[in-house]
Amino acid sequence: MKFSEKWLRQWVNPEVDTATLVAKLTLAGLEVDAIEPVAGDFTSVVVGQVKSVEPHPDADKLRLCQVDVAGDELLSIVCGAANVRQGLKIPVATVGAVLPGNFKIKPAKLRGVPSFGMLCSSKELGLTESADGLMELAEDAPVGTDFRVYLDLDDVAIDVDLTPNRSDCLGVAGIAREVGVLTGCDVTKPAQQTINEQSQKRVAVAISDSQACPNYVGRVIENIDLTAKTPVWMQERLRRSGLRSLSPVVDITNYVMLELGQPMHAFDLDKLQGGIQVRTAKENEVLTLLDRQEIKLSSDTLVIADDAVALAIAGVMGGSDSSVTDSTKHVFLEAAFFNPLAIAGRARAYGLHTDSSHRFERGVDPELALQAINRATELLLDIVGGQAGPVTQVVSNADLPQAQQILLRADRIKRVLGIDIAASDVEDQLTRLGMSVNPTDQGWQVTAPSFRFDIAIEVDLIEELGRLYGYDLLPETRPQGTVLTATISEHQLATHRLHSLLVDRGYQEAITYSFVDPSIQNYLVVEGESAIELANPISADLSVMRTSLWPGLIQALGHNLNRQQDRVRLFEVGRIFTGTQDNVEQHRHIGGLVCGSRYAEQWSEKQRPVDFFDVKADVEALLDLGRDSDIRFVAEQHPALHPGQSARIYKGERAIGWIGALHPRLNKPLDIKNRVYLFELTLTDVLYAQVPEFTPVSRFPAIRRDFALQVANKITHGEIQDCLQGIKSDILKGIQLFDVYSGEGVELGFKSIALAFHLQHGERTMTDDEVETLMAAIAQRLEQQLGITVRS
């Protein structure tokens, strides 16, 4: 919210300087972002009037002007502005003036013609960032008056960065109310004149969705003066608030919005076809906005329409076809209360953000519309004239926000804030904030005002008292509490163990949004898996909840690759979201991503790209923390993974995750040129740990027997392990794969796998017979179940 300090001081004028005023606002929670002069630093600029304009004898684009500045004689000034003309009143920098940037005005010759001063644009005076020509002043501007005095430029613009819950301060009236409480000054509202209704013209209003729009107010004003101009004082207040002057009618609606916080709109009455309807848009209904952008409306968008077409997106922006122009003679003024839930996200869905949507999304006072209509009518009649008609108001009281009745206990204030606040101060401050306060035995019964959507419970009131007292003045006390003991289970690993392991293996932790781009997520999820859509997304590319950690990690990878980081290892521990908006299920996952070379560049290892088994080793290291032997990697297909390099991870018979290479067909849509490997596991299964059991070291001899097996290429080592799990023996302590070979000496379609069998008994020396019997049983089992033969 940006506003002029002098405008604010017309509402409330405490005896404090600008710095103190700004400090009080900031400490009260209304953080001031910037304080800027409303004009550049200049001197000796006065109001002048061009008396004559003649062509320059040696330059086609220059003019020789005679300018009256109320001096002893006219000033001869050479000017190149296209809009210079006889009778025009403009700011004139006289000889000796100093303009912004320490630009000094001296007598000069332009193409041989003397020039004694300079006719100024608003940019040259530091009033605007750009200008098309000279700054044109009102016809009644007093010639010779100091220009700074004429526009009252010894002022500053204060920019307050409001939190979303303080929509009541999106108007000068709201800021003034806060200043009045903080300084103990009375707030002086502009006197409201009685509207003389000289017309009986009405426009019928029908509301089809009273929950979205429970209060709509309108009024017709006929026969406005097309030649009227926006007064200088209003133009300046708009400019100092960051808005430019457009036309009297539009300027007045903007002015009321800045003053009271109520967005308004004006329609050209002659362009309306029938009455006003507040309804939802028809699917793909077309509307051309004020900025000339043509959009197709969705069926969940609230619109203001007439009997034929949509005229505006409610609470966001009007349409150009019904807008007020220089030829408008009759206008229909609109002010309404729209439910924030009906407006939230609609502007962003169409790539828009307006002053109106900014306010309605946060909440506008539902009782303000009528006051705003009357204020705008008063200003319109003063500036452009015309005849005002009666007010048309359609209200659904049942759908309006209801006033909150809150019990505020005196002892509760002391307990929460740690200070005693006098009862009279409590009542005075809450009353100045617009609340109704009635004393009770326990404290006060407080009714929150309609413009404070953030006041709902007792601690909200205590927070108000605390910020008005001053957060910096509250005493510091140490909190007291009971230390709760937690049960630590040996069956549960600490999450930081996983973090540490992956960091030790060269990974870096990433933290990504839980909101993701639906187009990216659709590439990476299992077919048929639907995501939960956000009702009010931050942006279109963050509009659904993630069902996997991969979309965020993929985007983080792209960010790093685009910055020449060609070796990327990322992991994330976070929640994924499934179900529906009414029944959201959250599950914690751990996921990772690897891209680039296996090792960082070094002298002792030859460079090679990372492969599937490198990533599989990282995942196995994670799972080995829990000492769970019932883990299997089974070759299965996932739509986002390479069909020849993907596996599903099982714990027993339950699937707990995926691992694999990103499918090559996704490289182009995801804008990734490198080979990428991914994994993701459910965190609860990774954190589960087997409690270790003590086994004494046997004092009896151990032996090792090796088998070279001829195995069909399609058979995996995992299948061999599963087959041998069924061998029951008290001397078989372990099986180790130590070689894989294919080529000369091995039949086509087969490979040679070498396994080492470690044998030992814990209580006696083994016999040759039992060893031979075991090895024969192993060979027989492999041949019968998998068709594997022993080569040697």
Report a brief summary of the structure.
This protein is of the alpha+beta class and 792 residues long.
What does this structure look like?
The longest helix has 19 residues. The protein is of the alpha+beta class. A hairpin with a 2-residue loop joins strand 33 and strand 34. The protein has 20 helices and 39 strands. Helix 5 packs across helix 6 and helix 19 crosses helix 20. The strands form ten sheets. A seven-stranded mixed sheet has the order 27-30-31-35-34-33-32, with helices on both faces. Strands 3, 4, 5, 6, 7 and 10 form a six-stranded antiparallel sheet that branches.
SSE arrangement:
Blueprint: E1 2-4, H1 5-11, H2 18-27, E2 31-37, E3 43-56, E4 59-68, E5 75-79, E6 89-99, E7 103-104, E8 108-110, E9 113-115, E10 118-119, H3 147-150, E11 156-161, H4 172-183, E12 205-207, E13 215-222, H5 232-240, H6 248-260, E14 264-268, E15 276-280, E16 285-288, E17 294-297, E18 302-305, E19 310-313, E20 317-318, E21 331-337, H7 340-343, H8 346-349, H9 355-362, H10 369-383, E22 387-388, E23 392-395, E24 405-409, H11 410-417, H12 423-432, E25 436-439, E26 443-447, H13 458-469, H14 495-504, E27 508-509, E28 515-516, H15 518-524, E29 544-545, H16 550-561, E30 568-580, E31 583-595, H17 612-624, E32 631-634, E33 641-651, E34 654-662, E35 676-682, H18 683-687, E36 703-712, H19 717-724, E37 732-741, E38 750-759, H20 768-786, E39 789-790
Parallel strand pairs: 12-15, 27-30
Antiparallel strand pairs: 1-11, 2-11, 3-4, 3-6, 4-5, 6-7, 6-10, 8-9, 13-21, 13-22, 13-23, 14-21, 15-18, 16-17, 18-19, 19-20, 24-26, 25-26, 28-29, 30-31, 31-35, 32-33, 33-34, 34-35, 36-38, 36-39, 37-38
